[in-house]
Amino acid sequence: DKIKNEQSFLENTDEYWMSKALVKSMENASIANPNPSVGCLIVKNNELISSGCTEIWGGRHAESIAFSRLSPADLSGSTVYVTLEPCTHVGKQPPCIELFKNKGIQKVVIASKDPNPLVAGQGLIKLKEMGIECVTGVLINEVQAWLAPFFVQQKHKRPFIALKWAQTLDGCLADDNNGWQWISGENSRKYTHWLRQKYDAILIGVGTLLNDFPSLDIREIQHPNKRNPLKMIYDPFGKIFQCDKIEQEKLKEKTFKEGTKKIIFINSSVLAIEKSKKNEWLQSIIQNKDFLIVPLGEQNQPQFTKSLLESFLGKEIEDFLGRPLQSVLVEGGGRLLSAFIEEKCFDLIHIFIAPFFLGGEKHKLFSSAQKGFLSYPLKEVSTVQRYIMKVQEKLGEDILIELVQ
Ligand code: AOF
Ligand code: ZN
Fold first, then answer.
1. What residues contact 13, with CB distance under 8 A and at least 6 apart?
2. Has 63 been annotated as catalytic?
3. Which one of 29, 333, 364, 365 is at 20 to 30 Å from 89 when CA atoms are compared?
4. How many angstroms separate the alpha carbon of residue 128 from the centre of ligand 1?
5. What distance in angstroms lies between residue 87's CA and the mean position of ligand 1's atoms?
6. Dihedral pair phi/psi, residue 42, rounded to 5°
7. Which of 282, 289, 201, 292 is nearest to 248 (CA)?
8. Three-class SS of residue 402?
9. Which atom of ligand 1 is nearest to the CA of 54?
10. CA-closest residue to ligand 1 atom 2
11. What is the ipTM of this complex?
């Protein structure tokens, strides 16, 4: 919304048009990844004459869509705004750079270089060789924040990990007596659904699954291109397979509803035992093509997130999803979130803070009420890690903060 608020940029400046290109780039957020969702605007005589956003993975790039609507005469004397430098390689699509040749384009404004080593600045060099004036770095922070999952994947060869929760002023993620209920307000929930469509997968712990039976779908977004994220359940001890008939029905109705893909992570030894019991419920899940069961090796605290990360990179998940896994949103519960924080296994944290107190103990991060696997010792003020606050916004009655390490 901040970017959409055009008042913040002087009309017809490069920042003004780039902010519009960034908003355009968000159109296909849910379908473009793992390709970065890029926006391209073509402006002539201070008027927008065409625009494009990256299509579904493997489909056309932003520039190709924007250019396809125009003749060379239209392009002559125009300025092209593009959030990522035009590509120069042959991938699933031809190189966008070819589009810029011999069209009389006056200027190209780019927010960020492409971190993909097959491009990495080549686009910019080629544009300059064509004698086109180039401006770079316009709204680079905003664009790189938007494309952070793509940048992390390119740089570190692993998926982007985001953590997300809603809490009260006293840090409760749920009510001690009744378990899950809405903590955050309507605007925060809308934002959550928007995040769920931006990220490839949602990960929750089995405790949250069996307490809340959450749907984990995108409901509040009526986007023509919306894509429900992959649902991942961390269930090391196979609690799902101990569910009674009523719980099984509830799962089938909500979290395990047909039409979305689900992954269950379980310790390999537990899986072997469950299989040997000829558990019918497990058999039906194994045979269901919407499910993938990923066996994990024995996991030792404090390094359990490492084995999860390794499995995220496996070919098995890529084949099941039909594309590489670029990002994961960890939504809870408190134990799982605490472990990801403790093990520094995250790129970004989204926290929604609602203006009330609950006074509970059970559902706090690092709660001393939690014992056993995934519980951590108390910390001390003098040695504790402090995080950097990147965003603070009011969302209705709530406050959203976003933190990085
Ligand atoms: C652009 N414009 O809109 C996007 C770009 O396999 P391909 O051909 O789809 O290429 C994917 C790579 O292209 C991707 O890794 C990134 O480097 C770049 N993405 N480039 O010029 C776009 N989405
Ligand atoms: Zn391209």
1. none
2. yes
3. 29
4. 20
5. 6
6. -115, 125
7. 282
8. strand
9. 3
10. 61
11. 0.95
